[in-house]
Structure to design on (400 residues):
């Protein structure tokens, strides 16, 4: 009898039974903290997904939920045995895109995440379209979780447009050349801006990065001879930015982000009452170290009359994210210095993250919606546990 009791105690120690929706889910935890799941209903390995064709409206997070209520479903299935290592992202698209699903489509993944360790888990997304991710902070039914979802509680708050000069409160407007923010997503970290020269502290770089758009809030370059433009607006100074192709001359303003951004467009607004000092010819360059620069866009012969309002310029063909961006004014519209009241940077972050504290063994419902808008779009996801990294060996973390 004593031997039987010891065996029974061991079995109870290493088996866990969940009562779930009037069904029982049985799994065991191995000695190396790996989860082995049985086929007991209602849990099975992987996430369920639905795909929706002809996606033309799921292009931002404002309709991250409403789009799917009327969209026509074209395919469904289950994603199993996925590599969720951050060192080798899994591309979720590969499980769903086929000849029957056109380029412009949307995906909705749902299921349960069951952590193997208690602590702070990090979910990382690598994408170039619109992705919306929700995960519950407590174990519950999917049917109870889904009705609570709104656009406002999307975990990875990544907007379709990320503005260095925020009108959408992506991060606080610059009130100085340096500041920090604390966030659970990609925006977390230190921001800074600088300029090749400034007329005074009142007209430093940050004044063009706070959406004021008026005469008194603008960046103005130094008026001394070594920083000046001549009466035709041609640059006579000695500020050179070395790009991969050539040396680019002109006074500049620069922003450094705590994340990398793929540039899609930028916006400019002149110093009101000082239009002749607004740039006529300019360059936009990007860098990941603040030393080596790549030319992203250039404009020539932009007339003063163009700057009667905020002007937006589209940048095409960019696929590499940068964390530094520099605006270089090569020529002004006739003034001996350059000024700029507002400079917006528009684009998308290649990587976004969300962190949350989870308890081992609990089942946390989650939903991930993704909108694809181009042939080479990607939807990738990685997971980092509280300590160490995940090396994929077939162990599932998601269930449906």
């Amino acid at each position: 009898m004593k031997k039987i009791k010891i065996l029974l105690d061991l079995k109870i120690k290493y088996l866990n039974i969940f009562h779930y929706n009037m069904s029982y889910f049985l799994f065991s935890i191995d000695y190396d903290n790996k989860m082995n799941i049985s086929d007991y209903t209602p849990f099975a390995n992987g996430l369920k997904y639905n795909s929706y064709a002809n996606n033309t409206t799921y292009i931002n997070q404002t309709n991250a939920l409403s789009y799917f209520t009327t969209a026509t479903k074209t395919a469904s299935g289950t994603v199993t045995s996925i590599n969720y290592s951050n060192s080798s992202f899994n591309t979720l698209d590969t499980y769903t895109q086929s000849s029957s699903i056109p380029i412009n489509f949307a995906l909705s993944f749902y299921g349960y995440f069951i952590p193997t360790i208690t602590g702070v888990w990090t979910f990382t997304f690598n994408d170039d379209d619109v992705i919306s991710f929700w995960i519950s902070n407590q174990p519950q039914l999917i049917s109870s979780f889904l009705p609570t979802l709104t656009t406002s509680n999307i975990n990875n708050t990544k907007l379709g447009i990320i503005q260095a000069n925020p009108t959408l409160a992506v991060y606080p407007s610059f009130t100085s050349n340096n500041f920090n923010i604390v966030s659970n997503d990609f925006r977390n970290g230190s921001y800074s801006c600088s300029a090749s020269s400034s007329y005074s502290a009142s007209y430093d770089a940050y004044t063009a990065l706070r959406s004021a758009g008026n005469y008194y809030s603008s960046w103005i370059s130094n008026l001394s001879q070594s920083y000046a433009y001549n009466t035709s607006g041609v640059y006579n100074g000695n500020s050179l930015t070395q790009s991969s192709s050539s040396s680019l001359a002109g006074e500049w303003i620069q922003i450094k982000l705590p994340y990398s951004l793929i540039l899609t467009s930028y916006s400019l607004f002149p110093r009101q009452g000082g239009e002749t000092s607004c740039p006529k010819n300019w360059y936009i360059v990007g860098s990941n170290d603040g030393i080596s620069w790549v030319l992203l866009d250039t404009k020539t012969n932009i007339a003063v009359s163009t700057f009667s309002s905020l002007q937006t310029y589209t940048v095409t063909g960019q696929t590499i994210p940068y964390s530094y961006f520099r605006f270089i004014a090569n020529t002004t519209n006739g003034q001996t210095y350059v000024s700029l009241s507002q400079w917006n940077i528009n684009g998308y972050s290649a990587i976004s993250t969300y962190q949350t504290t989870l308890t081992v063994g609990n089942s946390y419902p989650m939903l991930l919606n993704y909108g694809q808008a181009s042939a080479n779009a990607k939807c990738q996801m990685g997971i980092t546990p509280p300590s160490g990294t995940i090396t994929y060996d077939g162990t599932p973390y998601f269930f449906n």
User: Anything to note?
Assistant: Residues 2-14 form the longest helix (13 residues). The longest strand covers residues 251-269.
